[in-house]
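Q: What would this chain look like folded?
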Amino acid sequence: MKSRFIFLAMFASSVFGAFLSAWIVLSYVERNPDPGLQGQVSVSDRQNRISFTNNFDSSIVIPEGINFINAAKAVTLGVVHIRSSYSSGVRSLNPLDGFFRDQSQSSGSGVIITDNGFIATNNHVIEDASQIEVVLNDNRSYLAKVIGTDPTTDLALLKINAKHLPFIRYGDSDKISPGEWVLAIGNPFDLNSTVTAGIVSAKARNIGILRDRSNLQIESFIQTDAAVNPGNSGGALVNLKGELIGINTAIATPTGTYAGYSFAVPVTLIQKVMDDLLEFGEVQRGLLGIRIGDVNARLAEARDLDVVSGVFVSSVNHNSSAEEAGIVEGDVIVAIDDVPVHNVSELQELVARNRPGDEVKVTYIREKAETTVVAVLRNTEGTTEVIRTIYPEKLEGGVFEDLGLSDLGSYEIEGGVRLKEVRDGKWKEAGLKEDFIITSIDKLEIKDIEDLHRTLQNKKGGILVEGIFPNGEKGVFGMDW
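A: My prediction, written as C-alpha cells:
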C-alpha cells in the first residue's frame, strides 16, 4: 500500500513538472517570438529584422567625397548606345516593308550634351556609316544625323529628333589632377550603361594614333586606369560631380582589350570642336604656323638651352602668325596665355581652343632670356577668316530650293527641299520629277538644303528618298548614291 502511494506521488509530481515546464516555455515564446518563425513573410523581412540589431563599423562607411553612386546616377541616362551600319551598295525596295540593304554593323557610345538631341561621340564610331542608330538608356531608338566631324581630334557631332533629354554638363578638364577619381560610362561589348571607376593617370598624352594629311592632328589625351573596352568609344569620362571631363577614345593594349591604359579627349577641346561643328559645319583651326618638337635633356645639351622641358621651334612658316609675332627658329615656347607648356601636346591643345583671328600670348625663351609676344592666329589658308561650309544649290544632277512658309503650311510639314530642276544624273535615274519635295532620306528628316547636303555627304550605296508630290501625295524612291 505504501509503495503504491509513493508511485502515485511520483507520477503526480512528474505530470505537474511537465505542465509547469510547458507553461514556462510557452510563456517565453509568446513574449519573445523567433524572428525566423513568427510573422515572417519573406527573406527580406528576416534579413531586415536581423540586420536591424547589427552594429556597423564606422570605418567601412564610404566618405562622401569618393561616393561613386551619385555621379553614376547623374550621368548614366546621358550616355547612349550608337549602332553604325555600313552599306555594301546592294539595295532592294519593298513598298510594304521599306528599304533594305546588305550591311555590316559596329557599335560605340555617345554623350548627350543638350536637351534637344545633340550628341558628342568619336569620329571613328560613325565614320563612313550609311545609317546611325542612337539607343537611349530607356531603350528609345532614333536615327541620327551627322552635323559635322573632325578627324584631327577624332570627334563628331550628331543630332536626333528628340526633346527634353537628360544631358551631361561640361566640367573643366584643366582642373583635374593625376590621382583624382573618375568614372567611365559606355557600352563595352554591347553591355549597355556600364560604369567603371579609376583615377586620372596622366594628362596631355600623345600616343600616336591619329593621322592627318596636313599633320594637324591633336593628341592631348587624359590617361586613366578606368576599364575601357571596344564599345566604350565615344562614351563619357566624368568626375565625381557628374561633370563631363572627357570622351573615351582609345586604349593601349597588346591584346585588343583593356590592359590598364585608357585615353580620353579632354572636354576643353570637346567644347570648342562641338561649337565649331554646330556653327560652321567644320572645325576652325587657329594656327601659329611653326614646326615644333619636345625639349629634352639631349636637345638642351646640343642647343645649349638652360631648360629641359618646353616646346622647341624647329622652323617658322613664311607669312605665318608666329613670323608676324617675331618668333624664330630656335626659340623654346614655355607658356601659352600664361599657362605653362612642357610638351607639344599641351601646346597644341591650348592653341587649338582658339579660332582664326583670336589672339594668344606666347612666352618663349631665346638666348636664355624670356619674352612674351601676342600672336594673331591664322587658318590653314594663311588668313584670319573663319571658314564656312557653303552648300551649293546644285547637287548630282538636281537643282534644289528651300521651302517657303506658305509651302510648309499648305503641306503641313516642318521642313523640306523642293527639286526645282532634274537633269541627267542620279535623281533622274531614280525617277524623281520636278517639284517633288524631299522630306527625309533614310528616315532622317530633311528641313533645308544644308540638311540635305549634310545627310548625303555621309551616305554610300543605296538610299531611301521620301517626300511629297505637288498634289500632296506621298512618294518613295530608292536610288544609288
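Residues 17-52 form one domain.
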